[in-house]
Amino acid sequence: MNRKTLVLPAVVGLLAPVLAACGGSGSGSGDSDAIVVGTTDRFTASKDAPAPLDPAYAYDVGTWNVLRQTVQTLMIQPRGEGEPVPEAAERCGFTDTGNERYACTLRDGLKFANGDPVTAADVKYSIDRALSLKADSGVFALLSTIDTVETQGDREVIFHLKTADATFPYKLSTPVAGIVDPDDYPKNKLRDGFDLEGSGPYTLKAVVENDEMVRAEFTKNPEYKGTLKVNNDKVEMVSFKDADAMGEALEKGDIDLMTRAMSPDQIRKLSGDADTEVDLVEMPGLEIRYLGFNTDAPSVKSKAVRQAMAQVVNRSALVAKVYGSQAEPLYSLVPASVTGHSNSFFNKYGEPSVTKARSLLNQANVTTPVKLTLHYTTDHYGPGTKKEFEVLRDQLNSSGLFEVDIKGTPWNTFRPAEKKGEYDVYGMGWFPDFPDADNFLAPFLDKDNTLGSPYANSRIRNTLIPESRREADRLSASTSLTDIQDIVASDVPVLPLWQGKQYVAARDDITGTAYALNSSSTLQLWELGRGVSG
């Protein structure tokens, strides 16, 4: 197979003309030949998660990447970087100086894919529904600053907020704020299964086998009105059991593009091959990985145990052994490229030290070795996860202070168990809902946090998070954000490990790959087209 590597800088738009010249016109082919995209994301309906695609429930990058193609939001993140822009809305903005009243006007003539008009009442219904259902995924917490939603006529929607929230426009760009048709989505219960309707750029036909969506067929929605230019008529997303099977399909030409989650070995191989049938596009990413703790569990209830783990773990060695240049050590929940980032864990613990870790445990009268099981998911964050946890286990055990086992579980079992508090220590990843420091902190530390964590710090929740949200200039929020990160480094309810880059591999007649993913790992299928190989 021929391959070449295209590495994009932080502002991916700068290289768009180069990519267009290499892969053909970005205007789309206009034929009925579907572009086929591979993924290792699994889409399963189960007793614990019967409604994987309901916007009021879905809260992981895989399901959100389905929803973003089909369910329209008032705002949307732009194709490159920057603040969100109107999408289903014609215009939106704060109407007061305190960032507590936010008003939107819908586009004229907006319709659902079935032809029904989209009205302000539908927006209110969708938001109120998500808030009232309070799905156990915790996604409703993104809308927690909303007090009431008011409508004026068919096109005006006004959000009255409980407190100032400069990040609110970002939150209206997330799928939980997606506009649904009240005829299809009951008010008092989630919509089970894989049926999905909206007013977004595509309609969805789900191919389901044994309660799992194995193929998602996206067809251009003729009723769509919004800011997006749809460069193709049809895209199919195929779910593979693992990265090797996905890679084989790309090599055979059964798929045109593959994205998350490629294996580290696949990326290294694609990067090193200089031929030209497949382009590997490297993009800046905001994905992070971390360990979460059930701080009520006896084995890690003592802060000293969690601090000792933070003191022992060698992030640089972990990244080097498993991911190489594809990731970087992370010393805060907030990635290094995001405004407000602070290296709080490095500032507190410095380089890894068994001596310092032993001192922390001795001072707290903790008997060693501390016995722990580190839980990880086998099929959600990519094939490098198992090796990552083997390295973590070996680092902790070699200190003599811990006796650690590891256990892998499929995501559809792992996630419900984690939310129920069944794991003392567990590995998680985070793809931001939007690229702001608030979204790397509040989802883990605020009330109704996504982890279901019992950890609560009143200063973070009652003072620092609200304080940071009052600052429209996010640089001005840095003091509050740094204080939050310093508290997390001291209490260690979570232990950040690394942040990663993101990649797309595509056959070279596929255009638009530079924008296939944005910085929040949103899959933008509308950007893809089919051009001329070369």
Brief digest:
Residues 1-20 form the signal peptide. This protein has 534 residues and is of the alpha+beta class.
What does this structure look like?
- By secondary structure, this protein is of the alpha+beta class.
- It has helices at residues 16-23, 61-70, 120-133, 168-171, 243-252, 264-272, 303-312, 315-322, 344-349, 354-363, 385-398, 411-419, 442-445, 458-469, 478-491; strands at 3-7, 35-39, 75-76, 85-86, 89-94, 101-106, 146-152, 156-161, 202-209, 212-220, 234-239, 257-258, 278-293, 327-329, 370-377, 402-409, 425-430, 494-507, 510-511, 529-530.
- It has 15 helices and 20 strands.
- Strands 1, 2, 9, 10, 11, 12, 13, 14, 15, 16, 17 and 18 form a 12-stranded mixed β-sheet that branches. A 4-stranded antiparallel β-sheet has the order 5-6-8-7, covered by helices on one side.
- Helix 7 (303-312) packs antiparallel against helix 10 (354-363), helix 8 packs antiparallel against helix 11 (385-398) and helix 14 runs antiparallel to helix 15.
- It is globular, with a radius of gyration of 23 Å.
- The model is unreliable at 1-31 (pLDDT under 50).
- It is found in: Cell envelope.
- Keywords: Signal, Transport.
- InterPro entries: Peptide/Ni-bd, SBP_5, SBP_5_dom.
